[in-house]
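Case study 2.
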Amino acid sequence: MKRILPDLLKNWFGYTRRERRSSFFLLLVTLAIAGIRFIVPAHNLTIQVTDISSFGPLFDSAGKTSQNSGIQSHYNKNYSVQRERLLELNSCDSASLESLPGLGPVLSSRIIKYRNLLGGFVSVEQLREVYGLSEETYKLVSVMLKADSGLVRKIPVNSADYRQLIRLPYFERSEVSSILKYRELMKKVESIGELVENKIITPEKAKKISPYLSF
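Prediction:
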């Protein structure tokens, strides 16, 4: 009787003794893994969703971007902080410029001299005009600088003499002579547009020099 059931199972499944041992071992391994997963459950993945309502409305009733958007204000605040950390071109000294990568004593000195010649930088891009400053160096330091155009020294067109006007690097000698002759004839120059209308300077030149002139 004891041999009947195993013989039946063997005949039914066709298992050998070795196969039965392997199957029993595999069953134990499966049960062990299942037990471990039951005892030590997997960690739950938690996704934290930021409440964007604290930033304020993104769109107004017309579907357009709100000018008072909280996100825009948050961005502007961070941008202002970053701007405060930039080195100001019109008030920094040579030592401050030397601390920037790629700018040694020679280039720093040239930048200061060119700034004095101009009367100040209207834009950081004017650094491209500094002799010996490569484009690679410009790209490297331009993101670390800012230029306050309010610090630019202006030339009073209606009282300046030839020497004062020609000091501005953007002026040609012929242009300065023409301005002085026109001023003598008209007694006063009202605006930069007047010089353009009378073909004393080109519109392109007017755009370049207008930040440095006062009327």
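The first helix runs from residue 4 to 13.
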